[in-house]
Write a structure and sequence with these properties.
two-stranded antiparallel ribbon; alpha+beta; 5-stranded antiparallel beta sheet; 2 domains; 7 strands
Length: about 140
């Protein structure tokens, strides 16, 4: 028969650590009939008999990415060609020149920089889309 090996964690929760073939559930302590459900990695609540999936880990948004990573992520997202027109559309000539210098000469792009947020917005990226671009960039 198939049985789950139930492991008690330090915080008291129980986890399906493995699924094995056994002759009987009494072979050793901590076995549970696998026909009850669940799979490796699930939490098991003995009181209710329910299995729950562990929470999906969140991916941290990097604080900064390199120039190469940023430009490659923008290219892969189909947005690189929209950056220069967004800079060109800045009405104040001094602010436009500052933005151009930052775009041309930055070695890193910081997620919280006002220009990054403004250009992101100008090319149609809300905060979540900009976060996704930074996560994507960090993987390049």
């Amino acid at each position: 028969m198939r049985a789950h090996v139930i492991e008690k964690l330090d915080d008291g929760r129980k986890l399906v650590a493995n699924t094995i073939e056994v002759e009987s559930l009494t072979v050793f302590d901590g076995l549970l009939d696998a026909q009850l459900g669940g799979q490796i990695g699930d939490f098991y609540d003995e009181a209710s008999g329910n299995f729950t999936k562990p929470p999906t880990p969140s991916i941290a948004v990097p604080a900064s990415v390199t120039r190469r990573q940023a430009r490659q992520a923008l290219l892969l997202a189909g947005q690189l060609h929209n950056v220069q027109p967004a800079i060109d559309a800045i009405p104040d000539p001094t602010q436009r020149a500052l933005a151009q210098i930052e775009w041309d000469d930055s070695l890193e792009f910081e997620r919280q920089r006002p220009l990054v947020i403004a250009i992101g917005s100008a090319i149609g990226c809300d905060a979540a889309a900009l976060d996704a671009l930074f996560i994507s960039a960090a993987g390049l």
